[in-house]
Amino acid sequence: MTTWITICDTCKREGWDSTGMDKTDGEQLAALVEARVNGSGALRTRRVSCLMGCTHGCNVAIQAADKLSYTLGNFTPDAESAHAIVDYATAHAASDSGQVPYRQWPQGVKGHFVTRHAPLPKE
Ligand code: FES
């Protein structure tokens, strides 16, 4: 089953305005995550504008149908963050419930979890 990584492409971390960068922090992180996923069978990516966690960007969501879903934030837009996000999403995809045992969490996602959502009930 596919796990989706949704990346907020409008996140700007504190101080972004003074960096002179033309891309937002979210756009930079999205590009790094997309390059890392690079056609992986179990993972897909998409960009959205705002996950309503603007005070703690960069933000991403990890989701799959009928599984626990998560939002994570406070990422810096760098390769280390992208690797950790993709490694975590890969473990999420391999899990039947979406719950990844703590011992399997990449170091780079620890301390970044913001919310967890239970799957919707079956009707
Ligand atoms: S701008 Fe990224 S969460 Fe609002």
State the name of the first-level CATH class. Alpha Beta
- State the fourth-level CATH superfamily: Glutaredoxin
Classify the helix fraction into a percent range: 10-25%
Instruction: Please give the domain count.
Output: 1
* N-to-C series of helices and strands: EHEEEHE
Strand tally, please? 5
CATH architectural label: 3-Layer(aba) Sandwich
Percent of sequence in beta strands: 15-25%
Instruction: Enumerate how many helices there are, as a single number.
Output: 2
Give unreliable regions as ranges. none
**What structural class do the secondary elements suggest?**
alpha+beta
What is the C-alpha radius of gyration, as a whole number of Å? Answer: 14 Å
Going across the biggest sheet, name each strand in turn: 2-1-3-4-5
Outline of this structure?
This protein is of the alpha+beta class. It is 24% helix and 20% strand.
Could you characterize the architecture of this molecule?
The protein has a single domain (3-117), classed as Glutaredoxin, CATH 3.40.30. Helix 1 (25-37) packs across helix 2 (79-94). The mean pLDDT is 96. The relative contact order is 0.22. It has two helices and five strands; from the N terminus they run E-H-E-E-E-H-E. With 123 residues, the chain is α+β, with helices and mostly antiparallel strands. It has helices spanning 25-37, 79-94; strands at 3-8, 43-48, 60-63, 69-72, 113-117. The chain is globular. It has a five-stranded mixed beta sheet, with helices on one face. The site of FE2/S2 (inorganic) cluster has 11 residues, from loops.
